[in-house]
Design goal:
The chain is of the alpha/beta class. The protein has helices at residues 33-43, 84-95, 113-119, 132-139, and strands at 3-5, 8-10, 14-16, 28-32, 50-55, 72-77, 101-106, 123-125. It has an eight-stranded mixed sheet with strand order 2-1-8-7-6-5-4-3. A hairpin with a 2-residue loop joins strand 1 (3-5) and strand 2. Helix 2 packs parallel to helix 3. The two termini are 24 Å apart.
Length: 151
Amino acid sequence: MPLVKDQTLTEDCYRHLTDSDALPETGGFSVSLQRWLDEREHLLTHAGPLGVRLKAEHEVSVFAEDLPKLALIVLELDKFTDGRSFTQAWYLRRRYGFNGEIRAVGDYLPDQVFYLKRTGVNAFAFDNAAQAPLILAKLNEFSVHYQTSAA
């Protein structure tokens, strides 16, 4: 899956595990929030970078104390009309001071990437590699801002 991170086209260096996948011995990976909550102590023994995947209905506060131990938060956007992931990104950056990667995946529109960036998202995964130039262009679509940014 193509990835734009910090306004650069790059490769995804994480494995995204299902709840039944075995844990890899090396490398970075992400797990669901439920798996993180269930296996937290064991996951923290992994030497590589760790990530947690959040659905829009998840509360950031349930694992906020673990944020310094994480390198990646994946916001799983189920519907482009659901704005809760924008709020999650803002909370991660502004309320909890998360400095790692916040990645948007799923159903979002290219027109939304500028606003997701303003709330704190710094990486965008998408299915079609041909979308990369459009995503990159949309990140810098506006040069004047009326509100402060979480990013």
